[in-house]
Amino acid sequence: MRSELRFCALALLTLLPAAAPQDKPTPRDFETRVRPLLETYCISCHGPKKQKAKIDLSTTRSEADLASNPDLWLRVLHQLRTRAMPPEDEKKQPADAARDLLVAWLEGALDRLDERSPKDPGRVTVRRLNRAEYNNTIRDLTGLDLRPADDFPADDIGDGFDTLGDVLSLPPLLLERVVDAADRVLDQAIVAEGPAERLEKKVEGAALAKDGVKDGVLDLPLDKKEVATKISVPAAGRYEIRVKASQKKGVEGAAIVVVTVDGVDMALLRVQAEQGKPEVYSAAFALQAGERRLSLRHSPHRAPNKGDPIPDTHLYLESYEIVGPERSLSHRRIFQSDPEDRDGARKILDRFAARAFRRPLAPGESDRLIALYDDARTKGKGFVPAVRQGLWSILVSPHFLFRLERDTADRDESGSVRLSDWELASRLSYFLWSTMPDAALLDLAARGKLRDPAVLKEQARRMLADPKARALVDNFAGQWLGLRKLETIQPDHGMFPAFNETLRRAMIEEPSLFFERLMRDDRSILELVDADYTYLNEPLAKHYGIKDVKGDALRRVDLKDPNRGGVLTMAGILTLTSHPTRTSAVKRGKWILDEILGAPPPPPPPNVPELNEASKDRPDAKALSLRERLELHRADPQCFGCHRRMDTLGLGMENFDPIGRWRENDNGKRIDVAGVLPTGEKFTTPGRLKKILAGCKDDFARAIVGKMLVYALGRSIERGDRREIQRVVESLRRNEYRFSTLIEEVVVSYPFRHRRPIRKEESR
Amino acid sequence: MKPISRRTVLRGAGAAVGLPLLEAMSFGAQEKARRPVRMCFYVVGGGAYLPYWTIDGAAREVPLEPKKAVEHLGPAIDRNEPIGELSPSLQPLEKVKKDVLILGGLTLSSAYGFEDGHSAEVGALLTGALFAKDKLQCGISVDQVAARHFEGKTSLDALVIGLNGGRPGGASGLGRVYAQHYSWRSATTPTGEERNPKLVFERLFRGRARKSDDADRRSVLDSVLDEAKRLQATVGGADRMKLDEYLTAVRDVERRIEFASKRAPDPDAPALDEGGIKEVEGRIPAQKGIPESYVDYDRLMIDLIALAFQTDTTRVAMLSHTGYRAYPEVGVKKGHHDLQHHEGDPEKREELRKIDAFNVGLFSYAIEKFASIRDGEGTLLDQSMLMYGSGMSNGNRHSRENLPILLAGRAGGTISPGRYVDYNWKKLTPLSNLYVEMLTRAGIPTTKFGDSTGGLAHLA
After folding, report:
1. Residues B385 and B438 sit within 8 Å (Cβ to Cβ)
2. Which CATH architecture fits A199-326?
3. Contacts of A490 in chain B (CB under 8 A)
4. CA-CA 20 to 30 A from B416: which of A476, B31, B80, B408?
5. What pTM does this model have?
6. ipTM of the complex in this document
7. In chain B, count of helices (H) and strands (E)?
8. Chain A CA closest to residue B191
C-alpha cells in the first residue's frame, strides 16, 4: 500500500521518473538550498543581466517575496514539473534530486502563501442558460416539455463542460432562435380568449380495424400493422391520448405502444395490465392545428438485429381516444384566476416575471411590463394578447436568459461579495437540476434561510433525491466521462460488426446508470475507479462474456472477474479512447491521467518526430509492435517524460479491444500488458493496474472535486481554489468518500457562496 | 398590377405563389448594369495531402518515400500559367477548370502559435488571427467583415452554415472553442453555425409571419433593449462584454425585422425562380430536416446558398465541413484525423487522396451550380467568388505553409480564372492577402485584414 501511495503522489506532483522527494523544504531553506539552485539554473537567463520572456527571478530574495507575483511562480512550477525549463539545449541541467527539491519547495511555498492571503472566491462571468438549462427552465416555467432549444446552435465547451460563462456566447443567430422560441412557447402555453373547439374522438370495438377484432378486442401484432384514424385538431395545444389495453399473461416487462401523428412518434406507452384486466394508459403531447393522422403500433423494445427471434408479446387493444386541447393547465398556471383587467394583468405579469427571473422584481420592472400591456390595449388588442406582449418580453429579457449576479455592498472580511439568497437558489438549482429553482428553494430564499450552510447542505441532499437530479448524470457525468461523444463515435464496421445501435445505447447507459445509482445510494466515489458490480443488459453482458443476464433492461450484476469494474473498464470509455480500427495506448493513458489521477500531461511540443521516422533506420520497422514503436518514440528526450507515463498506463489496458471486449491475443500475438510504474511497482493485468489506481484515493478525489467545481461554478479553476479543493478532499477522506459529501462540500465551498467584486480598473 | 415587393414574395415563397406575381416583380427589376458580387467560403477541415494535391507533377515523384512524405510541403515555386493537367486530388475539377484559380504557396504562418495545431486550423483560417490562451480572443473573420458591410442592404447579413460531423477536439480549456468556429462575428464572439437545412430554408424564405407581428415585436424589443442598456451600465468586466453581445444581437434582430417591413418595391430585385425554390424545399426531409446522405446534405446547403444569392437575400456565405469523420462515401473507414497523421504509410496517403478528391468533387458541384444560374447579363458564377480552403496543409505536421486553396468565379469580371498560380511558400505570403483582394472586389475597399502584408498579384 505504501508504494501505491508513492506512485499517486508522483502522478500528481511531478512528471519526473525519479523517486518522490522525501524532504519538505521550509521557508528557511530558501536561502541555503533553493536560492543557490535558482542562481545556477535559472537566473542566468531570467535575472538582472538577461530577462528572457521578460522574466526576472532574481528579485525574489526570500520566500515571502513570492507573494508579489504568485502566478509567475505557478508558471515556474509548471515549467519545472514538465521539464520545459531549463531548455533542452541548455548545457547546465539540474539533477533529478535538485529539480525535485525546487518543485517541493515551490509547492509548499504556494500552499503557505494561500494560507496567508485573503480568500479569493474568483469571479464567474455572467452565465447564459445553455441549451439543456433553457429547455428545462421552459419546462418548469410553463409545465410544457417543448425543448425549443434543440434548434439553437450548439453551446461551446470550455474545460470539458458547457456551463462556462466565458465561452457561452450569444451571437445574433441564437437570439433570433430565442425570439422564435418565445413565440412557440407562448403559442403552446396560452390560448387566446373564447371557448375554443375541442377534439374528442374515441375509436373502439369493431371500428378499431377491418378484421381481427374479437369480442371488442384487437390483438395487434408486433410491428406489422398499425391502427389509424383521421383527426381534426382545432387549435395548437396539448392533447391527451388514452389507450385501453392489456398484454399477454405471464410476460415479463411491458408491451410497448408507440403513438404516432403524421408519421412522427409522439408518445410511448408501456402496457403492463394482463389479459382480461385492461387498464387505461395515457400520455399528452403538443399538436399543431390541422387535419392529422393518428396511429398506434405495437413495437418491440428495441430494433431487432438480424436473426433475433421474434419476441412473443401480445397487445390486446380495446379502445383509444384523443381529447384536447388540454391547454387550460399551462394557461391557468400563468393566468390563474386573476380578473381580466389592468390589475389582473399586472399580477399575472409580475408573477411570471418573478419566476422567470428567479427573484422578486426590482423597482420599476412591474411598471415596464404593464406599459407593454397598456400599449397593446390602446392598439385595440384583447386582454390575453395584450398580456402576451408582456410575457413575450420576459422570455427574451436578459434577466431570463442570463443568470445575473450583482456586486452588492454585502461583503465579508476578505472583501468578497456574499451571494444573495436568490442567487444561491439559482446556483444550487442549475448545478444539481440544470433548471430554475423550485417553490421550496424560492420559499427558503424569500425567508432568508439559504445563506445558512446547514440549510444549503440539507437542500443539496433533498435535491439529489429528486428525479430532476438526473440532470447531474446527463450533464455532469455525460460530459465528464465523454458519453455525449459516444452518441456519434463509429468504430470500423467491417472489423467490429458487433458494434450496433443496441450496444451503443447500452454502452452509454452503463456508466450513466452506474453514476446515477452511486449518487442515489450515496456510495463512495472511489467505486467509479474500481467496483465489483456494474449495470448490464443481455447484449452488454454478452459483450463482456458474462452469462445469465437476460433481456434489454440494465440491472445490477456482480462481477467475478477483477479485470472488470469501474468506469475505466466500461466498454463505452474503452471505445471512446480507441481509434476506429485499433486501440490507442496514448489515449487511454492520457484518459487515466486526466480523469482518474487529475494530472493531465502537457500538450506535445511542436514538431515532434513521427513514430515511423524514429524507426526509419530499423530494417524491421514494419514488423514492430505498437509497444516497440512507442518505445522508440520515447527514445526522444522531449517525449520521454510524459509518454513513459501515458504509454505504461495505456498499454496496461491492452487486454480490452477497441470496443471494450476482453482479448488475450492481438493479431495472433499474445498481449503483454505488464508494466512498471515510475515508482517501481509492477502489474501484469489490467485488474492489478486498476487496484493500484484505486489506491490513489486523494488524487482521484482531487480530480473529481476540481471537475465538479468547474461544472458547478461555470468557470475554470483558479489558483485561489487550491485551498478549497483540498478542504473538500479532506472532508471526503473523513466521510468514506461519499457522493453526498462531495456535493455538500461543493455547495458550501467559499467560491460557491461568494464572488469577487469587480475592481475599479476592470470596470470598463 | 402593382409591383410586388420582394419581401412579400419571400414571405409567401414557402407556400404557393402564382407565376403572374413573379412576372410582375421581374417587370420592376429592369436589369441593371451592375449586379452585386457575392462571396462564398467553402471550408474543409484537416488539410490536404500535398504530393497528390499540388499541380507541379515533379513534386509528386520524389516525396513518396515515407520519410519525405512526412515532411512534404510541396514545391517552393513561382508559377502563373494556364491549368494543364490536373493533379490526382484535383481531378474532379476537370469540367470546371476554366472557372477556377488554383492558388499555391499561401500560408497562415503568423496566425498559428496556439499549442494545438487543429485549433489553429479552424479558428485561424478565416480570421488570420493569433488567438489568446488565457481568454477568448480570436479575430473577426473575413465573412463577417463583409457581413458588417452589407448589414441593412440585404435581409440577412450572411449565411453561416456548418455540416454536422466531428470537429477536432482541440486543446484543453479554451482551445476547444477555437477548434469549433471558423466564423467569428467579433474577436470574442463566434458567429454560430446553422446545421439544419430546414431551419436555413425557413430563415430564408418563410419570413417571420407569426402571432406577434413585426410591429409588436419591434415595440417590445425596443423596451427590452432599453432595459438591457440600463442593466449593462450597472455591471462590469466580462459581464459587460456578455451583455454587449446581447445588445448587439437584439439590434441585429430588430434590423432584420425593420428590413422585412420596408414595403417599397426594390427595382434591383432579381427574378425569383419559383420552381427552383420549390424543388429545393422538396428535398428537405420533413422530420429531421437533414438528409441521410452526406452528399445530399452538402448539395442541399449549396443550393440554399445559391438561392439566397440569387434572390439577393444575402451576399455572403460560409459553409464548413468538419472533416473529422470517416468517409464511407469513398470507402474510407478510418477517421480523417488518424489518416492525417499518416506517418508516411502509402495506404493512408491513398485514403487521404480519396478524401481530398471527394471534397473537391463536392466543391465542383457548387461551381457548376453557380454557373447554371443566370444573374444579370451572365451567370451567378460570373458575379461570385467561391473559395475552397483548409487551414492546414500537411496534417501530419500541422503545417500551415502552402495551404490548399481554390478560388472559383469571376467576381464581376475582376478575376480571370483558369490558371494555376503559385506564390512560393518559402516567401510566406499570408492567406489574408487573398482576403484583402476578395473584400475589395466585393465592393469593400480593404488594405489590411488579419495578418495581411498587402494584396495579391495575378488574380486578374
Report:
1. yes
2. Sandwich (2.60)
3. 325-326
4. B31
5. 0.81
6. 0.84
7. 16, 12
8. A171
